[in-house]
Fold each of these.
Amino acid sequence: MSADQLVQVVLADNPSPMTGRGTNTYVVGQGDVVVIDPGPSDKMHLERVETAIRQRGRAGAVLLTHHHLDHSESAAQFATRLDVPLAGIPQPEMPPLDTNLTDGDELPFGGGTLRVVATPGHTRGHASFWWESERVVLAGDLVAGEGFIVIDPPDGNMVDYMASLARVRDLDAAVILPGHGPAIESPRAYLESYIRHRLDREARVLAALGPDPRITPQILPAAYDDTPEAMYPIAVRSLVAHLEKLAAEGKVEIVAAGPEAAYQLKD
Ligand SMILES: [Zn+2]
């Protein structure tokens, strides 16, 4: 049976600038099925997820890619209702987990085995699930089928994020099923474009810096001149993530930390 027949996506009705068309909940397998990211506590949505489970068999586990509420809000209650364990990579913001996952764990289900791939960066403890026999990655918010992912420090970390993108690229998947947007049919090229996008941005950030300390309102318009001003409150978070990566690499000096933070090129 093909991955197409073995995975069902149920789109939550929570569209927004941050969630695109809404959050994708995946029901995976036949017989013993797993639910990935049950999504918001929306009765109608969860009923549709339950219908999808029933059409395929019965649930064996609920898995979380990360703690953001658009993925996890319903998770603890829903797992209890289904009487199955809730599993994810533990971190403080996660709902209470029954099963703590770690990189490399193998999760058998009715259709094969999902391997846990730790993909931190969007958040700490972000997990992707690699279904190697079908060459499918269920990637949460590592990538989106449309647009880009916000990296919001300190939970978000650009160094980790870039490493996670490269790691999933190197799996050489046939399909990525993201937490938002449509399936990604050319994962290697898509992830390459994500990596290039970040490196381009990093170059713009460097070009917007000088030997004197500059604060983010000075850096942002130059580094994000392709971004509408309405998006600046979100863009500034990714800017800080880029600056922290550059500081970790010794290219930028953080002159003052916290809300007063200023950044300058390191000589
Ligand atoms: Zn999300």
Note: The mean pLDDT is 95.
Amino acid sequence: MPHYAGTIVSKLPRVGTTIFTVMSRLAAEHGAINLSQGFPDFDCAPELRALVTRYFNAGLNQYPPMAGVPVLREAVAEKAESLYGTAYDVEHEVTIVPGATYGIYTAIAAMVRPGDEVILLEPAYDSYAPGVEVHGGIPVYVQLTYPDYAIPWDAVQRAIGPRTRMIIVNTPNNPTASVFSAEDLRMLEGLLAGTDIVVVADEVYEHIVFDGHAHQSVARFPGLAERSFVVSSFGKTYHVTGWKMGYVLAPRELMAEFRKVHQFNVFVTNGPLQYALADYMKDRDAYLGLAAFYQRKRDFFVSALEGSRWRPLPSRGTFFQNLCYDAISDERDTDLAVRLTREKGVASIPVSVFYREPPQHKVLRFCFAKSEATLAKGAEILSRI
Ligand SMILES: Cc1ncc(COP(=O)(O)O)c(C=O)c1O
């Protein structure tokens, strides 16, 4: 293959391969237990697979409607209304998308112009900043406090200026496993009142909130719902991360702009999977029972580490458990994560990679969306360190 001889001024000069790919690859190379990337090592429900097979065989294999099949949009709108009390119009305010990452990216593409500022709370999921920068936007970072990962609202207020176009929030939060409280969202609602700032609310872990707490969606707060793209992922909810299926909710004015971009990008999302998900969503227990399912895994993993030198930080939601290793090593988290994978056979994610200017916290993120056998093996190795 001849090489390209022209000049490339990269639009994303700082972007390399994501840490998830790097760590999963390293885990595979060394035969390590992979507690790094956030995906289950168990399959989805057989009922869901059967529905998919049925719909693939039902002659529904041509382009579905651009916004998503009506039955799935209806199911999503009904769920949002019953859980968060906000009625989204099925025709204009719900769009089915190929994954939450795409939904977030499309919302940024639709809203952010060159020179616009977008506030990101760090540590931040790694797709946000590149999504902003590729559209000429400028990420403005506010760091969550450590070790409780609370939101410093005074710093958020200081970060808001005349060029602020958007704030991206993520609750339950990857990688910190913290969640927003109702008070947090009221603070945000108050700060944004009277501005044109829009919110992208990454709520892919909406059904994984622990210890009896309710998920605080921006959709519950009228002053936020009116300016928010709420993004969720079927991948996280139904153990099908490889399907890349999600949805976006937004008031019609925002959704109209979103769809202008969506229409000329992917245009439509996989049809048979949408029909299958619409049927499967009738079983409310499948998503309402998810928090208890993952809480058991969290508790299993944490109790298997009892007596070890790893210090668990609170995991209030998501399927991640952060472990502080300040009693074990002075190494940087990136070095330790690689060494643990190579030498001990257990892979994790260093939390510093979610920061633009990483603080020297000694924290690794472990994914507990794994079978108990895998978690037990991982915890046994860690306990010996
Ligand atoms: C916070 C957050 N947002 C978005 C995503 C991506 O979701 P999807 O696979 O539906 O694009 C993930 C996946 O790990 C995530 O943790």
Note: The longest strand covers residues 164-170.
Amino acid sequence: MTNNSDHLVRRGWTPDGGQDAILPPHATRWLASRTGLDARPTPVAPDSVLTVPESALSEQARKALGQVVGERHVLTGRDDRLGRAGGLSYLDLLRHRGSGPLAVPDAVVVPEDPAQVQQVVEVCAANDIGLVPFGGGTSVVGGVTALRGDKAAVVVLDLMRLDKLVSVDPVSRLAVLQAGVVAPAAERLLAAHGLTLGHVPQSFERATIGGFAATRSSGQASSGYGRFEDMVEGVRVATPRGEWRLGVSPASAAGPDLRQLVVGSEGAFGVITEVTVRVRELPTVRRYEGFVLDGWEAGAAAVRELAQARVLGDVTRLSDPQETEVAFTMSGGWKTAVVRKYLRARGILEPCLLILGWETTSTEELALRRRATLRVLRRQRPVSLGTAAGESWRHGRFAGPRQRDALMDKGVCVETLETATYWSSLATLRTEVRAALIGSLSAPGRTPIVACHISHAYETGASLYFTTIVPRDLDDPEGQWQRAKAAACEAISDGPLGTISHHHAVGVDHAPYLAREIGDLGTEVLAAVKHTLDPDGVLNPGKLVR
Ligand SMILES: Cc1cc2nc3c(=O)[nH]c(=O)nc-3n(C[C@H](O)[C@H](O)[C@H](O)COP(=O)(O)OP(=O)(O)OC[C@H]3O[C@@H](n4cnc5c(N)ncnc54)[C@H](O)[C@@H]3O)c2cc1C
């Protein structure tokens, strides 16, 4: 079994430790002075305190599933079930550390290929069993929480054995990947053909092709390669009504694009078994650079101007003053003071870090694109920090989840949330969400840090990604975050000012806010699609459509 299915992984990103290097002593001292953290180690409850109810799967259903996938691929052991109990949100991690009850599936079914997935779906429908598709299990919105709903039992369908590159069409630049291929494996398989997908979310190390499609994921290089839905050319889906295949041409006027119904369907309309993706030539030259702009307003204006002039870097990422402060502090004590002095001397009083990255196949093209970007960027008077800052970001791009583990061990409530809106509303939305989070999380002795960045920019608007760090309320750790998240979701949905999710999806956590964004009619359309594809409601109960 892969690491993804390991219960220890549900306790954090780095069950093997090594976090001390990620959160050095100077960072802990800074957090203590900034937030009031007293850095008492927070004990992780022993495994034995976690409650795992008896499996409710009937003998008849177990046999039927075993006949499809082989008995040894129907897992009912404690660790196997715990290993798929929830995703990787802060609340999921807290619960795996003993803070509250976990939704543990009755069994884990591990089919081998699309045909077996189809049969598993049919067995579940015939036996009134809820079925939760599970890719990397990195959902941070409760997407893989094993809710039973009104079903007799609930099983997790783990796609880890669907791990193959099915075919490559180098002429059309297409590849067919099975849904369970983990992102690094997808890149390795494609690199053998001189190709890349270019989809690099922060969850890259664990997330899967099927999960990306099911959640409309967005990678760090989305400005260059597009969001995952831009890469999806075709899908193969197992539904209780039979198999559904979509995608025969790059564009079509044959009615609405039904592929887009599957993309973002979060396992509620079917199990994606294969995805045909658009691929590109593997880049051979890269350049990452750091710049600093003075204040959020100038920074956001710079990103907007780059987007509207269509000269964004493949990676374009702007941190607000709070996130820049965290980034500088984490990167090292004395360096922070030197950088600040250097920036002050150049008139930068509220540093906002901008990372730009270009990845191409020729130095000439890179030079041309970089020049075009910098010509527009100059209008906002950036100060260059050179390639060292860019490379430092690139090397640390997957450090976030590890830092989160280290912070959790030190008793910190640390979580992220994201949204997107049009440029004309961006400043207001950031202000409102910040105010909601700060208002909810502030308490005597606890001062929250609320940091924000733009990492996905468009001609008409951008995403906002918030990170909150505050000492954990040890008396009510779950309630502390639930109240803050609700306050932020209200701020986003009131109006609505922005979307309830730019790339994390709906899951359980955002379901109460979806109707405000798509309207009652939109909710009815989703319910009608669900009813057509999954009349008995066995697919991922409680997600997306209720
Ligand atoms: C530390 C961290 C960083 C993250 N960074 C990013 C980021 O930068 N960008 C981003 O977009 N997201 C990010 N995420 C969120 C998450 O990684 C994405 O939503 C990812 O797309 C989920 O992929 P997965 O394979 O883990 O799916 P899972 O978590 O297993 O599933 C997610 C949802 O999709 C459904 N699903 C999974 N596979 C299938 C399938 N084959 N068929 C049908 N339904 C399926 C599940 O039922 C569930 O509803 C991050 C998460 C973490 C923990």
Note: The mean pLDDT is 94.
